[in-house]
Amino acid sequence: MSRGRRRGHGEDSVYQDGDRWRGAISLGYGPDGRRIRKKVSGRTKAEVLEKLRELRKQLDAGMPAPDGKLTVGAFLDRWLRHNLPGHVADSTLDDYADMVRLHLAPALGRKVLSKLTVADVDALWAAKREQGYSPNSIRIMRAVLRKALGQAEREGLVSRNVAALSTPPRIGQPEGRALTREQAQRLLAELRGHDFDALVTLMLAFGLRRGEALGLHWSALDWEAGTLGVTHAVKRVKVRDGRSGRRTRLVVSELKTRRSRRTLYLTPELVEILREHRARQAKRRMALGAAWQDHGLIFPSRVGTPMDPDNFSHTFSRLCRRAGLGHWHPHELRHSGASLMLAQGTPLHVVSEVLGHSSIAITKDVYGHLVEGEKRAAARSMTEALLGP
């Protein structure tokens, strides 16, 4: 039987119920007109009064009442369904959903969101390291959780972002593999006259990403000025309507950031290679007639549709082996192009703009080791200026 004084409508109440003390605070009225109350409990009256004071302080500060039942898994699901769509690309949403499903929800999903701690999150990263995941993979997991908890923090569901406070993985920048100048020339000689001739040449010359190269449009090419705009990319995304029976589809989407949308400046030799490529494409289009599906792409499939990036990768690797170079991936053309640009003395900030990096810091982290010669030359120049020849 409960004892203690109950208060009137709209006031906080504290009362004893058996060997427990309980308190309640009014949160107003819901859409159905019924009063909404938040309840707390404790072993002593003082404990309950302190909980009510903290709760009232949060409400007065404009924060929602803490939900002691909302789990991390339920919040992440809501975040993916309601907060992200329309604010990120479909492909990014798919990546986030996979990260939540495969890594975050299984480990943290059952924990109460408001009680999630830095120690919980650090323990997850440690477990992932023990399972053999790379530091970069853990970095991506942390970034996704940090973004999600940032939304929870804005809504007042958590008082701090424990993912942001967790210890980030230490990531060493791998130098990667790059074609030498002689290897690049051998590859282009092997591709001369092939459908991939112009494609691989541009990827090497400008360090283009695979999707960017496949998303180049004829309409973005100015023959007289010798410029080509990089504005779109081909990528594979999940099918969401469920009506087609296919799980994924190819899309040509606009590049997201200002730095990634850029202009390539073509030499007369590159313009001529593109003219030859266009002539070959025109012959194929005439031969196919109505079967040709024109999307305005410079490097489409053999019927004019967007080229599947994975199909391109498989064929490219086969051509590399035929040229006696072994197995190579198209992404290594990007690294090769950047390395060759720096070897020719191209300033680092120019390489960064050509590659479409979001900042020169990224270019420096990945390719800074390749400018050792310039640093030594600078040291020699300063030594001569200060100490004489």
UniProtKB/TrEMBL annotation:
Residues 70-153 form the Core-binding (CB) domain. The keyword Oxidoreductase does not apply. It comes from the Bacteria. Pfam families: Phage_integrase (PF00589). Residues 174-380 form the Tyr recombinase domain. SUPFAM superfamilies: DNA breaking-rejoining enzymes. Gene3D superfamilies: 1.10.150.130, Intergrase catalytic core. InterPro entries: CB (IPR044068), DNA_brk_join_enz (IPR011010), Integrase-like_cat_sf (IPR013762), Integrase_catalytic (IPR002104), Integrase_recombinase_N (IPR010998), Tyrosine_recombinase_XerCD (IPR050090). Keywords: DNA recombination, DNA-binding. One of its GO terms (biological process) is DNA recombination. PROSITE patterns: CB, TYR_RECOMBINASE. GO terms for molecular function: DNA binding. This is Integrase. The lineage of its organism: Bacteria, Bacillati, Actinomycetota, Actinomycetes, Kitasatosporales.
